[in-house]
C-alpha cells in the first residue's frame, strides 16, 4: 500500500509538472520566439537587407501595422512549435514498447513491473501522449484491481488528449480572431489620416 501511495504521489507530481510545461509551451514559447523573430525582422527592415519602401508601407506605417506583424510572427511560431510536437509524438510512438503478453495472460500484480518499465524510458517518451496514456491505464487497473472498465478509461483518456490538443491552439485562434479587427482598425486610421491631410491642404489653399 505504501509503495502504491508513493507511486501515485510521483504520478501526480509528474502530471503537475507536465501541466506547467504545456502552459508554457502553449503561451510562453510562441511569444518568446515570435517576438524575437519579429525584432530581427524589423531590424532588417530599418537597417538591413529588407529596407524597402513598399515593405515599410505595409509593416511600418502606424502602430497597428506593428502589432499585426508581431501577431503574425507569434502565430507562425505557435504553429511551428505545434508541428514539432506532432512530429515528436510520432517519433516516440514507435519507440515505446512493452513486453508481449504471456500465453497465460497477466494479472493485476504485473502493473508494478510494467510501470517500472515505463519509468525507465527517456523523459520524452514518458511525457508523450502514448507514454502518459499507458501509465494512466496501468494506474487505473492497479487502483480498480480489475481491467473490466479499461475500455471506458481509455476512451476517457483519448477525449482528454483531444481536449488538450484543442486547447493547445487557443493562442492561434485568438490571433485569427483579432487580426481582421486590427485590419479594420488600420483602415479606419488610414482613412482618418487621409481626410485630415486633405482638409489641412484644402484649408491652406483657401486661405
What does this structure look like?
Helices cover 82% and strands 0% of the residues. The chain is built from 8 helices and no strands. The N and C termini lie far apart (94 Å). Helix 4 runs antiparallel to helix 6 and helix 6 packs antiparallel against helix 7 (150-168). By secondary structure, it is an all-alpha fold.
Characteristics:
207 residues; mainly alpha
Which helices and strands appear, and what pairs or packs with what?
Layout: H1 2-47, H2 53-59, H3 63-93, H4 111-119, H5 123-127, H6 129-144, H7 150-168, H8 170-206
**Topology, number of strands:** 0
Low-confidence stretches: 1-14
What is the residue-mean pLDDT, rounded to a whole number? 80
H and E string: HHHHHHHH
**SS strand fraction:** under 5%
Radius of gyration: 27 Å
